[in-house]
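Researcher: I'd like a candidate sequence for this fold, 395 residues long. If you have to choose between options at a position, lean toward the conservative one.
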């Protein structure tokens, strides 16, 4: 992934058992393409040693306010200059209290005070500490000071108690950090997306489906959420985790998908039909399992409703995006589909090697013509499709 390419993040780690999750966050940020400089407090270093963070970030780790490795001996200034964000995870109750009062008696608190970039903190503490009036007061102050608080979550705590104060998981923090850092061209928009295959029952145990994995639709849902939109994802049967912050509605058949879409589409300004909806379904679904026989079995199929075409022909349609997965004549078929369904944008791809991979090659078709995107991971293509869509909405 390269969604954090060219981003520079200073990751602070304070003293708390959640520090073990901080190492995973470092790994995810680096994998996302960011340059990560880790700053450990003395308490943080009690839980995880600098060696772990140095190995994961590939960069020196900082702890000491008087560290002579900074050329001008001012690590507290140097580290945040040019940084896109300081992220403190875990942020202990003590650290938050210091921050709320502007104290700066170690490298991390001092660089937070001296920074000229956004500060995100991920609190982690016992539930009583979290609920203590002093912590509540400090958090109100931090919000007033424009500091972004990620989480915490509620759940089992290392101390054996259950409640609020658990640090978010590394993957959740990563998602929130990406969402914070990327541009927001879809802020204020509500986006409805269909994804995955549908499953049309033949009898109680069998059905007609296809090999759509749902990956492209889920990647688009994630990219649209990162771009600032409120996203509803109507998904056929897939085994993918719901992207963070996305509202998911599970359906099985094309008829259920249509119903779920039509019930919601009027509240959405953008509709993206990515699902590989069945074009035909068995005219009748047998009540009981069809028994094996020696003679031919004929299935009667009837067409399903075309959800995208129906949405696009509403009186006041949302901005509609269609997908065209073709095994040949992509350009001709995709543009014909765009015209036939009256869509401002169609994303075409050749499915010569089947569906379900992590990478794709797509061409965008709009009123201006064709725009091939460089082949790449679906998540990266999703980001580019969302950027193109936002551009079309602006013009
Ligand atoms: O006409 P075709 O099925 O090839 O068009 C594909 C596009 O139409 C995709 O965007 C797909 O999600 C959408 N579609 C739909 N309902 C159907 C069939 C396709 O929304 N029943």
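Model: Candidate sequence:
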């Amino acid at each position: 992934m390269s969604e954090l390419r060219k981003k520079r993040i200073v990751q602070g780690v304070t003293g708390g058992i959640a520090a073990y999750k901080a190492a995973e966050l470092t790994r995810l940020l680096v994998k996302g393409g960011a340059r990560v400089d880790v700053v450990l407090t003395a308490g943080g270093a009690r839980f995880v040693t600098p060696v772990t963070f140095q190995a994961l970030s590939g960069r020196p780790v900082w702890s000491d306010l008087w560290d002579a490795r900074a050329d001008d001996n001012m690590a507290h200034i140097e580290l945040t200059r040019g940084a896109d964000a300081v992220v403190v995870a875990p942020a202990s109750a003590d650290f938050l209290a210091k921050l709320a009062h502007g104290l700066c008696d170690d490298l991390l608190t001092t660089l937070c005070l001296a920074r000229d970039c956004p500060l995100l903190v991920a609190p982690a503490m016992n539930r009583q500490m979290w609920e203590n009036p002093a912590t509540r007061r400090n958090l109100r102050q931090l919000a007033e000071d424009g500091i972004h608080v990620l989480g915490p979550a509620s759940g089992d705590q290392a101390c054996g108690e259950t409640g609020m104060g658990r640090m978010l998981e590394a993957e959740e923090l990563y998602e929130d950090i990406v969402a914070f850092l990327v541009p927001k061209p879809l802020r204020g928009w509500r986006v409805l997306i269909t994804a995955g295959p549908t499953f049309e029952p033949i009898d109680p145990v069998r059905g007609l489906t296809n090999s759509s994995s749902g990956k492209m639709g889920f990647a688009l849902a994630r990219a649209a959420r990162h771009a600032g939109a409120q996203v509803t994802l109507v998904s056929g049967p897939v085994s993918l985790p719901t992207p963070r912050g996305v509202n998911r509605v599970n359906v099985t058949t094309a008829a259920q998908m249509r119903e779920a879409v039509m019930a919601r589409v009027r509240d959405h300004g953008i509709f993206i039909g990515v699902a590989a909806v069945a074009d035909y379904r068995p005219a009748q679904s047998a009540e009981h399992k069809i028994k094996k026989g020696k003679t031919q079995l004929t299935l009667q199929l009837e067409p399903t409703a075309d959800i995208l075409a129906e949405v696009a022909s509403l009186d006041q349609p949302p901005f509609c995006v269609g997908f065209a997965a073709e095994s040949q004549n992509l350009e001709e078929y995709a543009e014909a589909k765009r015209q036939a369904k009256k869509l401002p944008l169609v994303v075409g791809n050749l499915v010569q090697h089947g569906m379900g991979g992590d990478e794709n090659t797509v061409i965008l078709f709009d009123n201006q013509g064709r725009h091939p995107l460089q082949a790449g991971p679906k998540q990266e293509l999703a980001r580019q499709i969302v950027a193109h869509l936002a551009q079309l909405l602006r013009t």
